[in-house]
TrEMBL record:
It comes from human gut metagenome. The keyword Hydrolase applies. Coiled coil: none annotated. This is Beta-mannanase. InterPro entries: GH, GH26_dom. GO terms for molecular function: hydrolase activity, hydrolyzing O-glycosyl compounds.
Length: 156
């Protein structure tokens, strides 16, 4: 494969980034990568895959919703609270997977910072106008940037 296929867009990318890109380039057209999203800290999906196949996937997905700064604990249902509590401490699992040299993907069900109730990451549970979030200085823009800064701080 051409070096161009695994040259990071950021010239200051860490060596780990370069290693992953090279690995992906090296296996192109030769192998596939399997992956699985884990819904909770217990990682039932991962354990079932290992039990059935004797192997673990190369790529593991993690949920960061419990790190959202806008969980409305006073206006949420039991189902939502179960999802939140079952994902407490997810980043510990992320770093453990990284130590095993596993590939990582993360999703963040972002609780609406304004005008939301219960699972406010669903549009029907919020009046948050995402189109206003990209307009400088709107309340939506300020809330979005604040939450992204919070998450960036957590991930550092």
């Amino acid at each position: 494969m051409s070096d161009k296929l695994y040259t990071p867009s950021n010239p200051n990318a860490q060596q780990g980034v370069r290693n992953v890109l090279k690995y992906l380039s090296d296996i192109t057209y030769e192998k596939i990568i399997t992956g699985q999203h884990t819904q909770t800290m217990a990682q039932e999906e991962l354990h079932l895959i290992e039990k059935v196949t004797g192997k673990q996937p190369a790529l593991l997905g993690f949920e960061l919703l419990s790190y959202s700064p806008n969980i409305n604990y006073s206006d949420t249902d039991d189902e939502c609270m179960t999802e939140v509590t079952e994902n407490y401490g997810t980043l510990k699992r992320v770093w453990e997977w990284a130590e095993k040299k596993g590939l990582i993907t993360m999703c963040w069900h972002w609780f609406s910072p304004l005008y939301g109730r219960s699972k406010s990451f669903f549009s029907e549970n919020t009046d948050f106008d995402a189109s206003k979030a990209v307009i400088d200085s709107t309340p939506e823009n300020k809330a979005l940037l604040s939450d992204m800064d919070t998450m960036a701080g957590i991930l550092r």
